[in-house]
Amino acid sequence: MSLDEAPADFRLLQFSTDEWRPHERFDLWRDVLTRKLLRAAVDPISERPFHAEAKLRVQHGVRMGVGRLEATISHRTRDIVADDNDDVTLMVNLEGPFIAMLDGEDVRLEEGEALLMDCSQAGAFIRPAPGRLLCVRMPRQMLAEYAPLLEAMLGQKVSAPSADSLRLLVAYVSALCQSPQLILPPEASYAVVRHVCDLAALSIGASRDGAHLAQSRGLPAARLRAIKAYVNANIGSSSISMEEVAAHQGVTARYVRKLFEVEGLSFTAYVAERRLARAHVMLTDRLRAPAPISAIAYDVGFGDLSYFNRAFRRRYGATPSEIRAEALKSS
Q1: C-alpha distances in angstroms, 300 versus 105, 108, 270, 296?
Q2: Strand, coil or helix: what is 92?
Q3: Please, where are the H alpha helices in 49-90?
Q4: How far is the first Cα of the chain from the last one, in angstroms, to the nearest whole number?
Q5: Are strands 88-95 and 123-127 parallel, antiparallel or unpaired?
Q6: What is the DSSP string of 166-222?
Q7: How far apart are CA 193 and CA 187, in angstroms?
Q8: How far apart are CA 75 and CA 44, in angstroms?
């Protein structure tokens, strides 16, 4: 696949200068940046060995990704933007100093702050020290339905009332960029892309009607992904509850219940499934072979060994002992 093609299955594209020869790193990185995200004339401003990495997904005209970059300055001259289009890009500074120079004004983004940029606008972006950035580049028309005042928002920082939506956007895109196993057909990837645009619209200040649309579509998907991520990170706690998760997310337990019901399952069923899946991974890991099965059951949050054995056999069609024995035999 060439750099100019968007993978039909929405697969994750990963780039790291560590995979290239030292004398080729900067030129190859500039090629990746230009052809996959935003065309620019990039120059290093540090004597440090150049290092950069990025994880991207591209489909349906939307490009999203997270990257780490050494100290650089990126110029978007009038000649460069003349060959670009009128997409808009939402930039979120995740780590380190970042300065955008647009129309003679400097916009400094602190960590966690965002800026909406017009891809047809000349300017420069300065990264004085290594840092991380999240970008979502979208066709203008995908946001126009949400924000009739889009033009007034260009070049502006995201305002404080949109902070929650912005955090969800960052969590959603970051999760997509941390799941290399996720591949989707076009119709499914379009739904994901719409969710991302919904969250971007809420972050920059959608109109009332647009906000209602985004909240009814993209916000629940992002919130559910964040809830699942919290559950997965705390799956070993036998006391994890819907009330605990709701409090962490700043929503009600009833809202959490409804989010899962949309997917046709319950919170309890999801937690049990993730615990069983974690136990299956541990049982098939030969390095954990000496560990008692009871210890594994407790480690993944089951307080009752008999219930764990029954649930595991119902899920995998074999007992934990049989799964472990088969894994050891195969290895």
Answers
A1: 53, 44, 13, 6
A2: strand
A3: 78-82
A4: 34
A5: unpaired
A6: HHHHHHHHHHHTT-TT----HHHHHHHHHHHHHHHHHHHT--HHHHHHHHHHHHHHH
A7: 10
A8: 11
Q: What's 302's DSSP letter?
A: -
Q: 24: burial class by Cβ within 10 Å (0-12, 13-18, 19+)?
A: exposed
201 and 214 Cβ atoms separated by less than 8 Å = yes
**DSSP secondary structure letters along 104-152:** TEEEEEPTT-EEEEETTS-EEEEESS-EEEEEEEE-HHHHHTT-TTHHH
**Per-residue model confidence (pLDDT) at position 108:** 93
What is the pLDDT of the chain when averaged over all its residues?
A: 84
Each residue's pLDDT tens digit, 146-196: 666 677 778 888 765 567 788 889 988 998 888 888 888 888 888 888 888
3-state secondary structure (DSSP) of residue 242: helix
Q: Give the position of tokens 């629940």.
A: 220
Tokens, residue 16: 């790291």
Calculate the alpha carbon distances from 95 to 59, 70, 88, 173 in Å: 26, 12, 22, 16
Q: pTM for the complete prediction?
A: 0.68
| Cα(161)–Cα(204) distance, integer angstroms | 10
Encoded amino acid at 281, one letter: V
The Cα–Cα gap between 232 and 261 comes to 18
